[in-house]
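Colleagues,

For the teaching module next term, I've prepared a clean inverse folding example: a structure given as tokens, and then the sequence designed for it. I'd like students to try predicting residues themselves before seeing the answer, so please don't circulate the second half yet.
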């Protein structure tokens, strides 16, 4: 990284004071938040031409793969150096990274109900203890925080799982396989237990018991951690995998497209309910390998704006529905068609402007504090 680029990264994002950015991962993270915001805008009255926004939900699965790879990699780096995981430092860093901006947005949802995108909201205590994804249904305020609950629960358990695996190496194969195949069996059981009136799976039951709960959504997180484990403990395998990346990107895209095709139609099939998530996990894990491979351009070419959007992605994810709702009210008050180019562009701009404000006023100061109190290099 050149000196001007490095200075800019340090000025914007304190997370890169002791490590370089990876352009390929920045690009994937930026794409993930862009498609998620487009998806939620479409749900809330700002449909894209051809309703291409309907596929944007897969951005969350891409976030999960990236998260498993990056955070799992931090924990595994200590074990690879034959050092214990510093649990206190890990959880302190997670708290300073996640909680400040999250609790501010949660406070807005609790104390300013007129700002909510939907009047109804699950009990506030569920959001405080990160179990809001259990039994959740769409059409409630701050429902997109379900994915944060999945990650909180996963990373609460992951350090202890890795410590166990470090003592019993065979578990490095057994545990991921149990989670993967167990997820398939559990989704199959739940899909058959919740039939729709006509055909397929009840969508409301699918949301509550398959889409949102942690135990059916672990595939991409586990795939990300597995990639990190290969990189840290089997560097020769990792080099071969990244060398092979030139042949991976097309099958990866094909898997993602096929997974999306499974969900098309007038009803939700059992096949889609069971297989969409693992297929997406495979596809996005392969794309991650492509993004970091030196044999492809993604690892070395900096797409203008991708790093910045990647940095504010968490703030954008938190604030998006509040902003989309506010823009929708504005459009309604001034008779602006929500499907017009002006409305579609404006709602996206407003989300990222609000995300920039949240990032620089809340998220970034606490990231700076985290760097002083619990620097990454000491984990």
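(Answer key — instructors only)
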């Amino acid at each position: 990284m050149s000196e001007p680029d490095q200075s800019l990264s340090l000025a914007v994002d304190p997370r890169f004071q002791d490590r370089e950015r990876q352009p390929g991962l920045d690009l994937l993270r930026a794409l993930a938040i862009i498609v998620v915001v487009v998806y939620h805008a479409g749900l809330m009255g700002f449909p894209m031409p051809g309703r291409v926004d309907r596929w944007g939900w897969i951005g969350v699965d891409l976030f999960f793969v990236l998260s498993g790879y990056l955070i799992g990699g931090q924990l595994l780096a200590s074990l690879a150096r034959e050092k214990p995981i510093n649990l206190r430092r890990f959880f302190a860093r997670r708290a300073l990274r996640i909680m400040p901006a999250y609790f501010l947005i949660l406070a807005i949802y609790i104390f300013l109900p007129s700002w909510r995108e939907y009047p109804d909201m699950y009990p506030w205590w569920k959001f405080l203890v990160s179990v809001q994804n259990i039994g959740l249904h769409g059409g409630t305020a701050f429902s997109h925080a379900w994915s944060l609950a999945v990650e909180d629960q996963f990373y609460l358990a992951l350090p202890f799982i890795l410590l166990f695996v470090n003592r019993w190496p065979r578990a490095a194969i057994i545990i991921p396989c149990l989670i993967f195949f167990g997820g398939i069996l559990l989704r199959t059981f739940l899909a058959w237990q919740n039939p729709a009136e006509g055909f397929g799976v009840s969508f409301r039951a699918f949301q509550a018991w398959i889409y949102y709960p942690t135990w059916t959504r672990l595939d991409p997180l586990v795939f990300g951690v597995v990639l990190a484990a290969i990189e840290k403990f089997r560097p020769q395998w990792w080099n071969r995998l990244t060398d092979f990346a030139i042949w991976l990107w097309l099958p990866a895209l094909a898997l993602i497209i096929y997974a999306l095709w499974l969900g098309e139609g007038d009803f939700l099939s059992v096949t889609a309910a069971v297989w969409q998530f693992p297929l997406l996990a495979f596809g996005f894990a392969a794309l991650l390998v492509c993004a970091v491979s030196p044999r492809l351009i993604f690892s070395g070419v900096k797409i203008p704006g991708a790093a910045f959007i990647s940095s504010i992605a968490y703030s954008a994810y938190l604030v998006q529905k509040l902003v989309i709702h506010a823009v929708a009210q504005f459009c309604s008050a001034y008779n602006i068609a929500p499907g017009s180019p002006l409305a579609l562009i404006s709602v996206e701009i407003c989300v990222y402007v609000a995300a920039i404000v949240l990032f620089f006023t809340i998220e970034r100061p606490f990231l700076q504090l985290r760097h002083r109190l619990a620097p990454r290099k000491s984990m």
